[in-house]
Amino acid sequence: MKMQNVLYLSNLSKDHLHTLPLIVLYLTDGCNSRCAMCDIWRVPRQNMDMELVHHIVKSARRLRTQMVLLSGGEATQHPHWPSIAAQFRAHNIKVWLLTNGLLLKKQAEAIIEHVDRITVSLDAATPELYQRIRGVDALDLVLEGMRVISKAGVHVTTRTTVMRANFRQMPFIIDVALANGAQSVSFLAVDSDNPYAFGPRFEEQSTLPIASENDFGPLKEAELAEFQALLERLFISHAEHFANGQIEESPTKLRRLYDYFASLYGKASFTPPRCNAPHISVVIGVDGTLQPCYFLPPISESKNLDDLNQPEMIALRSAYRRKQRPECSRCVCPLYRGPRALLQGF
Predict the structure, then answer these.
(1) How many domains does the chain have?
(2) What is the domain extent for residue 27?
(3) Contact 115/84 with Cβ under 8 angstroms?
């Protein structure tokens, strides 16, 4: 076995990292959407400094990074994001763009040239609901951009955050996404209580309404039976899409969405998801701050990838692996790579 493969696999058995297969890079706090369930667009805009980017690229090469996920905010609002993507690709590091899709058409040439795959946030199948959730009237623009990018050969997927406002549109979101260039679609539950993702939603100055009191939070107890029935119908009506992988989650995994919402009312148990994100990835904030994942807080003041194996970092990886981190018990966005998947690469 190649030494590089041995190093990748050693991450899975120990809390000391030898490689860093995935880097999530928050390029900017700026966002041109106005999502009802996210507060990050209200934060004063800050772009990642290019000198910091150069240092990260250098470290990523040394740490045998396979892929960088450009995120934010809205990554395409960083004025130099194509140059940043090009720097990673120059070292054979793939570039994955997480985007709201508003600039796909306008920046199509740069995306086609510099990006290996994109994931578009798609939370509605109709213009009216899209505007309610996303705060901008742009569904047709996003879908047009998806078609352009997909036609050029870039791998396009969509991700839908399931909430009270849109759960009834899940079948139609699948159809709309696949008809407009997406190779696959994916779903996750709206987060109801994590303070480390999606902006300062739980701070006193946050202007977001309480999630449990609006249409952009978890389902109400009275809606659970309807949601459960919808899922069972979906498994039949879209059986072919499950079978060929166009719907990324299996029926078993989608049933976990019901469990997540039902557990809020004591109607079901929610088993903590399988995840090893802190052993294979890191989230780097716009100022260089390191987070183990989207949903865990920064552990130290370090802004240097060379500090990934500081004692506090190793202690955190040990704690979550031993199921000692309470945040992990209700995580809505786990990341797991087993040995075979890790060797295949992102």
Answers:
(1) 1
(2) 3-344
(3) no
